[in-house]
Amino acid sequence: MTGLIAVLCTMLFVLLYACFHYAMLAAWDRAMRRKRLAKRKDREQPAEAWQQRPARICSKLYAHAADLLAAVGWRASAGSFFAGCLVLGSIGLAVGIALFRSLPSAGLLGLILAGTPYVWLRMRLVSLQMATRLEFLPAVELFYHCYLITGGRHIRAALQKTVDERRLPGEVQTVFAQLCRNLSVSEDHEESLRRFCLAFGHMWADYFGSIVKVALAEGNDVSENLKELIGDMRKAQLANQQERHRLLEIRLANFTPALFLALFLGINFRMNPEGSYHSYVLDPGGRGMLLNALALLFGSLLMGLYLSRRKM
Fold this sequence. Notes:
The model is unreliable at 39-51 (pLDDT under 50). The longest helix has 36 residues, at 2-37. Helix content is 87%, strand content 0%. The protein has three domains: 2-31 and 57-132, no CATH class; 136-234, no CATH class; 240-311. The protein starts with a helix and ends with a helix. The protein is mostly helical.
């Protein structure tokens, strides 16, 4: 029976992966072709727009995952990321069927494992944003000085000089180096700046990205804009430190329920190993209770990530 379930889950995974993989590739290729031709129009018939909606959703998901992976510096592609999610979801589905003998419980476990890579990616992004939050002002000041030295109109030269100075902290140096490299290689300035702003995750990075975008598109002198941005950031530096403490409180609150659950189970297994093993492992009701607790912990972690994003 267990072997048959494993074979069925494997076949289901292969089918889902093939369908999802080719759908994502087709949607992404279609979006890129439209972007290169620059002939995308909004004057479409309602029926055609409804038929193209799944492709647009897939392309947006693909682009969103690609932006997150590029922002945190992971070299994995969006396709391999979604493949990993499908693999973990299939494993969770198979394990859930074997342990709980219930389709809703198996689906819940599969959903949790399938969403784990995305949560991990989001947690890595929040950690990067917190590490670079207080170092963004010195980085912009250094870029401003390099921009004045290079003549006030060569934005790429100023970025390259800022990176070559190697006076930025490790994480900030990596983000600026990635922006400089992307602007030199890629023709899509908006995508490079969007990933740069996503790596920092606050409004000051968005303002800085808008200034760089204008300088790249029009070639104007943006030294006054940079000077005003630095002045506003200096005034708001104390508030940034207070927000950073709030973000630390949110992150600590995310892991507190998991700590209490581990402490509770540890005390029970320490005081009564046989009874705890029978209640939590052998009893289906106990396994279901642990699965529900895991789902609640996963939901609290998602809520913490959402609050951290709102606080940025």
